[in-house]
Amino acid sequence: MESHPVDTRGRGLRDLRISVTDRCNFRCVYCMPKSVFGAAYRFLDRKELLTFEEIAHIARAFVANGVSKLRITGGEPLVRRQIEHLIASLASIEGVTDLSLTTNGALLTAKRAAALKAAGLTRITVSLDSLDDALFKQINDVKFPVEQVLEGIANAAAVGLGPIKVNMVVKRGMNEHEVVPMAERFRGTPHILRFIEFMDVGTTNGWRLEDVMSASEIINAINAVHPLEPIGANYQSEVAKRWRYRDGAGELGVISSVSQPFCGACTRARLSAEGQVYTCLFAQSGHDFRTLVRDDPARLTAAVARLWRARDDRYSEIRTFETHRLVEFGPKIEMSYIGG
C-alpha cells in the first residue's frame, strides 16, 4: 500500500478546511468590510457552489491521502441551508476522527446546536472579538449583540459540542484592551479561548504590521494579572501555542502566524465553496477540483496526492523576514472566501 504523500518540505496532509459558502451575515471590519462587500458585491451563484455530495467526494479523496480532521468553515457556514446533511455525510467517512465547525455564533440556537450534534459534529469554534456590546456591534458592523453569541456558546455546550474554542482576533487600535477581560470571562470554564494575531489574509482588510499585537504581548498582558505557564501541544501540527493558568483555572492559546510562523508544521489544505483547493491560507491561486469531481471523480485521490507532493508554501516565514516585499506578492485569496 502506497504511503500517504508528503510535500517538498516533508509535511504530511492531515487537515482539510471546507468552506461551504462565501456569504456571511456579519461584515466584520477586518474580514468583510462593507466598503468592499456591500450591496453591489457579487457572491457566488448557487450553481457555482459544490453540492454536498461533491464535497463529500472530495473529502474522501483527501482522507485517502492522510486527512483525519475536517473543519467546516465559510463565510458563515450556518447560512448554508441544510448544512446538517453535509455534516452527517462527512461524519460517515471512515478515517475521520475529528469533525468541527467554525461559526460567528449568530445562528447557533438551541435547536440548531442539537441538530449539529445529532448529525455527527464533534466540536465547534465560535469567533468572538469583544465582550463590550457597543464595540462588538461596531466590529461586526451589523449591530449584532454580543449576548446572543454568548447564548450560542451556551447552546453548543449544553449539547456536548466541546470543548468549545472561542477565537478572538486581536487588532491594535481596535480591541487589544479586551484581551484581559476576555481571558477573565472564560477562566474557570471548560471553553478554550484562543487569541489570533491580526493577519494579512486577503487584500481588503487594510492590514498593517503596526496593527499586530503579538502573541508575546498578549500572553504578557494576561500573565501580569493571572500567572500563566506554557504546556505542550496536543499534536505535532497544532497551530496554537498552549498556556494554562497556574492556579488551575483552565487553558488558553495564541495563534502567532505573524510573529512566530508555524509554516514548518502546517498540514492543512483548504477547499473553497466553488471547488478550488488551496494549499496555503495566503495563496494567490487555487486548483480546480470542481471540474474534476464533476467530470472524472475517479481521478480525485491521485490528484490530491499529486498536488500535495508539489506543495512548497511558506508564506508566513517569507512575510516575516521580507515584510518590505509584501507588495510583490500581489492579491491573495480573501478570508471570507476560504475560511480560517
What labels would you give this structure?
single chain, 340 residues, alpha/beta, TIM Barrel, 11 helices, 28% helix, 16% strand
Structural write-up:
The protein has 340 residues and is α/β, with parallel strands linked by helices. The chain has a domain at 15-164 and 265-338: Alpha-Beta Barrel (TIM Barrel), CATH 3.20.20. Helices cover 28% and strands 16% of the residues. It has helices at 52-63, 83-91, 110-119, 133-140, 146-158, 179-186, 215-223, 290-295, 300-309, 315-321, 335-338; strands spanning 15-19, 69-73, 98-103, 123-127, 165-170, 192-197, 228-231, 241-245, 251-255, 268-271, 276-278, 287-288. The chain has a 12-stranded mixed β-sheet with strand order 7-8-9-6-5-4-3-2-1-10-11-12. Helix 1 (52-63) crosses helix 9 (300-309) and helix 3 crosses helix 5. The radius of gyration is 19 Å and the shape is globular.
Biggest sheet record? 12 strands, mixed
| CATH 2nd-level architecture of the domain at 15-164 and 265-338 | Alpha-Beta Barrel
pLDDT averaged residue by residue: 89
**What is the chains' assembly state?**
single chain
CATH topology grouping of the domain at 15-164 and 265-338: TIM Barrel
- The low-confidence parts are 323-328
Helix count, per DSSP?
11
* Gyration radius from CA atoms, angstroms: 19 Å
Q: Give the CATH H-level superfamily of the domain at 15-164 and 265-338.
A: Aldolase class I
The helicity comes to: 25-40%
Q: Please give the CATH class of the domain at 15-164 and 265-338.
A: Alpha Beta
Strand content: 15-25%
Shape: globular
Order the strands across the largest sheet as they lie in space. 7-8-9-6-5-4-3-2-1-10-11-12
- Structural class designation: alpha/beta
